[in-house]
Amino acid sequence: MKLRPKFYIGDVLILLISILFILFTFKSFWHFEAGSIVQVNFQGKVYGNFSLFQNKKINLTGKEGESVIEIREGRARFVTSPCKNQYCVQQGWIHYAGQMLICIPNEVSVEILDKTKAYDSLNY
Amino acid sequence: MTRSIIKIKTTLLDHQVAQLSAIAIGLSLLESVLPSPIPGVKPGIANIISLYALYRFNFSTAMWVSILRVFATSLILGQFLSPTFMLSFTGSLLSLITLYISFRLSKRFFSPISLSILSSFAHIAGQLLLVRFWLIPHASIYYLIPIYSLSALLFGLINGWITDQLLKHHNSL
After folding, report:
1. Which chain A residues touch B113 with a CB distance below 8 Å?
2. In this predicted structure, what is the pLDDT of residue B67?
3. N or C: at which end does chain A have fewer Cβ atoms within 10 angstroms?
4. CB-based contact, A19 to chain B, within 8 Å
């Protein structure tokens, strides 16, 4: 019994087209850009938009206690958080547009914005 | 009072459809037990039977097998008219349309492998469209397109190859 499949010209063509298509989808949907602005949300409201290219520490006192957010060299992170699970601290640094750190107990979230979204902050 | 007996006349084609559907339903159920790494990434081995029916008999047989399989499997698993069923139904419809069109391609250049790849792409395209416009109307779905299209190519290729072998060596199913 011959198990080797017989490929016709059309099969090869379709295979090549699909591989190209997949490479194209990876390139167009999985591109990550470094963001330039970080948006801090606190207790359901926008606390402020900050440039990522500065060294800054933000202290926020919420229901649970004090959360400390650090911005340094184009990245952002939670330094300390009063919450039990510490998920936000353990996620470490974020720097791509669209990435987010959320601390639900203390109602703090940090999101990196890309250029198109950051345009809104001009009105702010 | 005389008892009335209703006898449905069945043709040979009905028997063929029933046999093939039974195999397809069995494969579908087998597959539903297997764990999947990502929700939605499934080999779709039941499509082998639809493709086999298309080549061995004709398009209407393949259509019957495919549609019956979707309905029967969802009834058995208790998913009838649920989102899972709708996803499966949309995917099957789109891949049937693709098979109908691509079956007209020259047999000299295109083997069942081509049709299998095309139909699995159509299947996933239908499902993603339904998810995008009905279940999760959010653009973040697009992040999944690369993974799903990669798995469509992989499983389409494998299923097509199995169908090719079935048609060559087991032509009496």
Report:
1. 5, 7, 11
2. 95
3. N
4. yes
Half-sphere exposure of B158 (CA within 13 A, CB side): 10
With vertex at residue B161, the alpha carbon angle to CA B14 and CA B121, rounded to the nearest 5 degrees, is: 80
Residues A111 and A94: beta-carbon distance below 8 Å: no
Give the CATH architecture of domain A37-122: Sandwich (2.60)
- Reply yes or no on whether the pLDDT at B1 is more than 80: no
pLDDT in tens, B3-61: 888 888 888 888 999 999 999 999 999 998 888 877 778 888 999 999 999 999 999 99
Q: Which residues of B touch A5 (CB under 8 A)?
A: 111, 113, 161, 164-165
Would the CB atoms of A9 and B143 count as touching at under 8 Å?
no
Q: How many domains does one find in chain B?
A: 1
Place of tokens 């080999």: B43
User: In a 3-state reduction of DSSP, which class is residue B125?
Assistant: helix
Predicted interface score ipTM higher than 0.90: no
pLDDT category of residue A2 using cuts at 50, 70 and 90: low
Cα–Cα distances in angstroms (integers) from residue A43 to residues A36, A60, A63, A65, in the given order: 23, 10, 9, 13
Is B4 domain-assigned? no
Alpha helices by DSSP H, chain B: 12-33, 47-56, 59-77, 83-102, 112-130, 145-169
Q: d(Cα B102, Cα B55) in Å, to the nearest integer?
A: 12
Measured in residues, chain B has a length of 173
B103 occurs within a structural domain: yes
Report residue B113: phi and psi, to 5°. Answer: -60, -45
> How far, in Å, are A34, A68, B148, B149 from residue A13 at the CA level?
37, 56, 20, 17
